[in-house]
Amino acid sequence: MQLDNIDKQAFLESDWQQRPRLIKRGLNNVDLIEPEILAGLAMEEGVDARVIEHRNQRWSVSHGPFEEYESLGEQDWTLLVQAVNEWMPDVHALLEAFRFLPEWRIDDVMVSFSVEGGGVGPHVDEYDVFIVQGAGRRHWRVGERQATTPTYPCEDLKQISDPFNAVIDEVLEPGDILYIPAGCPHDGIALEPCLNYSVGFRAPNQAEWLAQLADMALQTERLKQRYTDPKLSSSTPSHVVTNGQLEQVKQLLKSALDADEFNELILRAQSMSKRPLPEPELPMMAEQIPALLTMNNAMLVRTPGARLLKQADTAHYFANGERFTVTEGAEMLAQKIAELTDEVPMSELAPYCQDMCSQELLAWLVNQGVIELLID
Questions:
Q1: Quick one: what percent of the chain has pLDDT higher than 70?
Q2: Where is the JmjC domain (predicted)?
Q3: Measured distance CA(5)–CA(356) in Å, rounded
Q4: Rounded CA gap, 94 and 167, in Å?
């Protein structure tokens, strides 16, 4: 799936994280999921789904799993389902259109189904998002980035109370794409039953980064340098924390940030999937790989939501929070799998699996849940 009617480099230089952009007819095929299938998915345990209603000037939010939808009627409600790309391969394929952006930044694909009048109200997001119009039409108003005042019309629904001037005021039709940078106010109202696919890009704040990296450091037993006191004075009361002591703590933390091993912690964190990846029933052994490469009914597929990242200018690959160092002979296989978007026969990988490191890499990725082995 490829984007049309856009110069990607020009977009990155002029629009990305700077201003909203409407891309008319950006995708040709947006028939990715039927509303009935989406509604059925929202009935399943473990699926993050919400219904937002706006009736008689009152907002309400209910959470799944849902049992029925008939009581909602035919106007003024929206069903939103998170991470549909992790459940539906056709929706996962949508991400291929956005691979000109860093893979680790992609969060998930939220799919919404709205009846006439459905929407979630004016709001801002703390992340960048591409909204792809599926079936039906929706009227969108989008403003430039501005300071906003949050309001909570009901529990679990955050909107803004500030008016905004729309720099985009358009009706989106199937295949149109709306790019909205973080912090830009927007509001979309369905003109008829319609589907929207929201490709969100995660942007952890400083506290979230530090918390995740601290967990990674503890798990991998990294950054073990301890605090030592600066020069002390016996005349300083014991309950007083001096500026020198505060500076010593900050220097300790800064030295951690500057350490080469901190780069590895960041990559471990970036390679983590949003949800736990599936593990094979039995661990894959590298010795099993040669036989699998000769099987006509053995297929490999990237697990939706899994990330395989390479640290630039090194031989290190990261997946599911773990590191694997590849040899020169295994580099081509690692690259092939990192770029994998569709199912491929195992036999197609045979030319790249001639040495033990390649076979160990393949087994490692299966055991990490990054790729799945399918045998008919």
A1: 100
A2: 90-218
A3: 45
A4: 27
Selection from 126, 103, 100, 305 nearest residue 204 by Cα: 126
Structure tokens at 327: 């040899």
Mean pLDDT of the region 99-128: 95
Integer Cα distance of 18 and 98 in angstroms: 17
Nearest to 322 by CA among 185, 220, 177: 220
Q: What residues contact residue 309 under an 8 Å CB cut-off, 6+ apart?
A: 103, 104, 267, 270, 271, 317, 318, 319, 338
pLDDT tens per residue, range 116-172 = 999 999 999 999 999 999 999 999 999 999 999 999 999 999 999 999 999 999 999
DSSP per position, 150-184:
EEEEETTEEEE-S---EEEEEEE-TT-EEEE-TT-
Distance CA(279)–CA(211), nearest Å, equals: 26
All domains of the chain, ordered by start, with CATH? 8-201 (2.60.120.650), 206-270 (no CATH), 286-375 (3.40.366.30)
- Report how far residue 174's alpha carbon sits from residue 113's, in angstroms, rounded to the nearest whole number: 14
pLDDT surpassing 90 at residue 343? no
Query: Do 76 and 118 form a contact (C-beta atoms < 8 A)?
Result: yes
> Look-up: residue for tokens 């799919």?
111
pLDDT above 90 (res 342): no
Task: For residue 170, give the nearest of 25, 52, 51 by alpha carbon.
Answer: 25
The size of the chain, in residues, is 376
